[in-house]
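Quick review question:
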């Protein structure tokens, strides 16, 4: 992405898990709404996703490409790993007096 290019950095730069729960097909309005929850310029972000070949669009339906799905899986793994690493250890059931 060119320096100073507005919007889209979070999603197109590695925030797909913040955007969608599963890498499946999304209608134009639904994807605009989801992106709009975390990015102000959702139109620019959708274009970036296409330019970076993470999604394809046909007849108003956006579908993840193999690259987009792979990126989503990697981000999901990293996010889950980080969440698990900050979870408290389960107690042994013994209470301190």
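Suggested answer, residue by residue:
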């Amino acid at each position: 992405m060119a320096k100073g290019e507005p919007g889209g950095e979070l999603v197109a730069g590695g925030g797909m898990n913040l955007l969608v729960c599963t890498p499946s097909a999304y209608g134009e309005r639904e994807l605009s709404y989801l992106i709009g929850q975390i990015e102000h310029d959702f139109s620019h972000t959708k274009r970036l996703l296409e330019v970076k070949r993470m999604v394809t669009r046909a007849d108003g339906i956006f579908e993840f490409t193999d690259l987009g799905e792979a990126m989503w899986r990697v981000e999901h793994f990293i996010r889950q790993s980080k969440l698990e690493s900050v979870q408290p250890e389960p107690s042994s059931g013994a209470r301190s007096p």
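Why it works: The two ends are 58 Å apart (CA to CA). DSSP finds five helices and three strands in the chain.
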